[in-house]
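Lab notebook: predicted structure, single chain.

Context: the supervisor wants predicted structures on file for every construct in the current expression panel, including those that have not yet been purified. This is the next one on the list. No modifications to the sequence; it matches the entry in the shared construct table.
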Amino acid sequence: MKQSLARPRPLWWRILIGLLVLVLLVLAVAVIGGTVFLRGSQPVLDGSVASQGLQADVKIQRDAEGVPTVSGASREDVAYATGFLHAQERFFQMDLLRRSATGEISELLGPTAIAYDEGRRLHRFAARAEAAVAALPQADRKVLDRYVAGVNAGLDQLSNRPFEYALLGVAPRRWRAEDSLLVIWSMYFELQESQLHREFVRGWLRDQSTTAQQLDFLLPKSSEWDAPLDAPAIAEAAAPLPETAPGWFGRVATKQVAAVAMLSTVGSNNWALAGKRTAHGAAIIGTDMHLGLRLPHIWYRAVLAYPEAGKPVRMAGVTLPGVPSIVAGTNGHVAWGFTNSYGDYLDLVELEWDPKNPERYKVPNGWEAMTYHTEQIVVKGAQPDVLKVADSRFGPVWSVGGKRYAVRWVAHDKGAVNLGLLAMAQAQDVPAAVAAAQRLGIPAQNVVVGDSAGHIGWTIAGPLPGRHVPAGFPYRADAVDAGWQALAAPGQYPSVIDPASGQLWTANSRQLAGAEYSKIGDGGADLGARTRQLRDDLTGLGTTDEARAYLVMLDDRAVFMAPWRDRALRALDDKALAGHPQRAEFKRLLQTGWTGRADVGSVGYRLSKGYLNELYSRLFGALDEQLQKDDSQASFAVATSRWPTVIARLLEQRPQAWLPMGFNDWQAVELAAIDSTITKLTANGAPLSAATWGQRNTAHIGHPFIGAMPWLARWLAAPADQLAGDENMPRVAAPEFGQSERMVMSPSREAQAIFNMPGGQSGHPLSDYFLAGHATWVDGKAAPLLPGPQTHVLTLTAVRQ
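Prediction complete. Output recorded below exactly as produced.
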């Protein structure tokens, strides 16, 4: 036999191979174990689950995208099932919402969140929530208690805790009735907290202006773009241009401040067409609420069906995980949708402290002692953070810019939060829906409603302060007539019912031209360009149906940006182009790369937007830098969304006294803005012609964990889609902000209703529903609101006690 010449492997080699095999085995076990663990935190889709306290079995049918139809014998049973679904699909999202309202994020994330929590603890919403729950009507409390029971049952039914808690190494905390109200309070921060910073900036500008005329010019009360509901336009003369500028104006910034493009972004469109404007005689309601885009998505879509008073109730729309009601949608008789109202719902009260006693502050009739509360913040992996919160008769005390202010906010008032949305299920017509809306305990919204008989209406939904004249600037604590003592009564709310035009529209701008607007006030109302474009689109529809009306939401025409393109072209005259080939290319692309839309391939739109934003930097960048030394969220754009009209007037009148530092004429200012835009867009060596709007407006939609663990983006983020649209047009789109849903519906015609949203139903990355429907939203396709054929059926079985 021939002997092998191969030598035996040395010992070290065999040990190395053994270790590699062991490592691979460990990795394989870890992957398999991790997958099994993750799958164990997915929801139950089929079969039956025994459930305590149900009056009868509840059926949950899901379609191919995971959209449930929940059918039960009572509102309470359906609330239980809704809570069960929310917990199974979205519990971590719910947990973040309640914790964001109370300032308890540090308990999950550790010391990095302490500053955030301290800012939220100022308002002490955890303590307010207990009182708010106690004040709920008995019927609402019964629904809420069943919802809470369903949430905890859904959480218990998961084989493993949601994956986020495994990554954080903490256990989920059970749900309470107070938590659902805290979820609503979290939306106050989302929708109204910017008013805190707005008031501070406006107070700073008032203090630093040498004349009242400067302030009137810089903070206009309306714009030529406004499209109110009660008049063709707002007939207010523009404030005259003062002879001198404030000392801070046009100074040179020493560093790059936050991009103005997102500082001025507000969002949401809603509108109504009366039956006389529709092909079928019923009203059509459209709503696309603009919010921060993230995963899991803020909304959870559902159909809820149950009998009440012997009649069937069937609601379709979107829910907010943590709350048992449909937020926006239709009940078959009435449809409704919201936009943020941007009324004046927060005041800053500048406090004067007693020089003889630093614990007392001035009030109209003398001095009053400050009250203090101790807030203990639990911090993961560290000692608790103890915060001493000062409280006055006007509200909690906020220290900023060397001053101390009391924060007087509607969110602190009794009645700020309730479950009034449950009443929308019973509304049979527009008057009933308007009356119910005015009693809602949510951040005050524009609500438009329409009914199956063709009537339409608008009002404010949510608490309004009961004061005669909105403040708009900080006031002194000893001012007797400042502020408000109680919320306005619902019967005092402004409203518009069945206008002659047969249409209603709101898009965050000034709603009314007349005296009734003083009941709302300006708390950061939008410029109005989007509102006008929306109004004109609706007018152009004539008589229409849902499919044609839906296209209004996709209108990305650059009506607002076109005049800024024209200004840039005028600045680029022959003298400006001489010896400047880059400017010549900029001008060529403004001419040939302009499509008239904010579409993804438009270079001209991106250059025009860059020019406008760089003008802002030249004029207000140093101011923003100064403001942000005291308040990181402060800026001139926060003080007024109408800043483009201020810049436009300066370019039209070209006052020498208002030239920013270092410039001899206004054309030089414009050319500097153009040059800066060119420099930024070509910094990576790419040609200017490659600077498309889509390249700038690329979606960044992901789970909050991605910020700290970017390697998770592969599983926890949506594709980096290029998005058409921008802020001053109906199709609002930004990388992390935009149309959180698009919904067009006509009550009694739900089968023809249209819907899409950027995220799926599930918050679980292994679920088929995690991004279901995302591509439809990106493409703007009209998908049905109602679920498709059922693919899964789960029964919650009543267990008799």
